[in-house]
């Protein structure tokens, strides 16, 4: 079995007491790589510390999460810019995007910040990992001018409609990130996935959030990507080994790590 967790926040304090065990359980589940999206300037050090400790297993991204965008966004962006200039081990710009679920106060600023980070993704030839919550139309409008560029990336934690999936796939370099939400009882994702080629899918956990069935209620961790794999295998009517292989190749390709 080969699995890649393309989106996991194992550097957060939820894992401070048992990270070695969490990593070992991930390895035992067949996870070969864990990709770690940054949140803001407060998380860079802890993320890099974990990635340095588990070198060649955990891989960092750099970006400013939309829920951390406020009136001081320019200071945060300068830190992202500095990191991009000084450290060449980042595998993506992420996680970035827009989130209007809690608050729309900084809607315009979120658009500006997303556009700036998309430009960095193109400048540094890195994929972009997009967070979208109650903001699909806004994000699509920011992305649309880049449709005929080399922009590539992952639309993380996808929970949208058939139409939204189709609009994402208008961008040839984009993949769709599927996590534990697909296992939830009321999720419409299983139906939507029947219209999306497996070659456009990557798997993720979004640990410590969105724990899949049958572990709902527990802290999520990278090993549980296997529960999502089993559900996706059922939807595509393919063996777990085949789905693991295809989604892992998809991930390595978009993140520029396919050897």
Automatic annotation (TrEMBL):
Chain positions recorded as a divalent metal cation 1 binding sites: 7, 9, 95, 206
Domain of life: Bacteria
Entry binding sites for a divalent metal cation 2: 131, 156
Pfam family membership, one: TatD_DNase
Xref: CDD domains: TatD_DNAse
UniProt keyword Metal-binding, yes or no: yes
UniProt xrefs under SUPFAM superfamilies: Metallo-dependent hydrolases
Cross-referenced PROSITE patterns: TATD_3
Any one GO cellular component localisation term in the record: cytosol
Record-level Gene Ontology MF annotations: DNA nuclease activity; hydrolase activity, acting on ester bonds; metal ion binding
Keywords carried by this UniProt record: Hydrolase, Metal-binding
Family the entry assigns: Belongs to the metallo-dependent hydrolases superfamily. TatD-type hydrolase family.
The protein, known as: TatD family deoxyribonuclease
Organism, as annotated: Bacteroides intestinalis
Upper taxonomic lineage: Bacteria, Pseudomonadati, Bacteroidota, Bacteroidia, Bacteroidales
């Amino acid at each position: 079995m080969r699995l890649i967790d393309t989106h996991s926040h194992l550097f957060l304090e939820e894992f401070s007491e048992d990270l070695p065990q969490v990593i070992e359980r991930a390895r035992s589940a067949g996870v070969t790589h864990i990709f770690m999206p940054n949140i803001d300037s407060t998380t860079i050090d802890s993320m890099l510390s974990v990635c340095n400790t588990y070198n060649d297993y955990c891989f960092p991204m750099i970006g400013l999460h939309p829920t951390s965008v406020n009136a001081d966004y320019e200071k945060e962006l300068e830190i992202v810019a500095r990191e991009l200039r000084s450290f060449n081990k980042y595998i993506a710009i992420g996680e970035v995007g827009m989130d209007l679920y809690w608050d729309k106060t900084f809607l315009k600023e979120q658009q500006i910040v997303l556009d700036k980070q998309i430009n960095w993704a193109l400048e540094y030839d890195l994929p972009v990992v997009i967070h979208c919550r109650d903001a699909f139309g806004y994000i699509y409008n920011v992305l649309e001018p880049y449709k005929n560029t080399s922009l590539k990336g992952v639309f993380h934690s996808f929970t949208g409609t058939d139409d939204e999936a189709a609009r994402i796939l208008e961008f040839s370099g984009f993949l769709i990130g599927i996590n534990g939400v697909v296992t939830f009882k009321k999720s419409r994702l299983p139906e939507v996935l029947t219209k999306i080629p497996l070659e456009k899918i990557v798997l993720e956990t979004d640990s410590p959030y969105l724990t899949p069935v049958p572990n709902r209620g527990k802290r999520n961790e990278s090993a549980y990507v296997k529960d999502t794999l089993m559900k996706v295998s059922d939807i595509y009517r393919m063996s777990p080994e085949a789905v693991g292989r295809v989604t892992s190749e998809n991930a390595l390709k978009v993140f520029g790590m396919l050897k």
